[in-house]
Amino acid sequence: MTLPKLTRLELQIMDALWTRGASSIREIQEAFPERVRPAYTTVQTTVYRMERKKVLRRVRKISNAHIFEAVISRHAAQGRLIDELLSLFGGRTQPVMAHLVESGRLTLEDVKEAEKSLRRLSREGKSK
User: Fold this and answer.
1) What would the pLDDT profile of 37-78 be if each residue is shown by its tens digit?
2) Domains along the chain with CATH numbers
3) Cα-Cα-Cα-Cα dihedral of 126, 92, 18, 68, to 10°?
């Protein structure tokens, strides 16, 4: 299944669900910092759109409140975003890596973890 593209607000809603677990629309809305909290109806409309996209689902109803949970994992959503970013560079990772190094955001520990992952994938025959 191809993951649908998620907007910034949709990603913030997903983050609330990944962090808090199954939640009502009110609980999702209250997960936003007060100074940037969207209106309840904005969250409600977005949640219903996300339900149609099949990235979250209703799991139960308590009184009048529907409870929603994430269908896709944080890891899957992050992978989709990274793939989108790399597509801007023609699929090349080097410009992104160079920027991370130059900005000081890529640490030696990050490189060691990446090397371990590459070795593991190579042993499993999955590296490209």
Assistant:
1) 999 999 999 999 999 999 999 999 999 999 999 999 999 999
2) 1-92 (1.10.10.10), 93-128 (no CATH)
3) -100
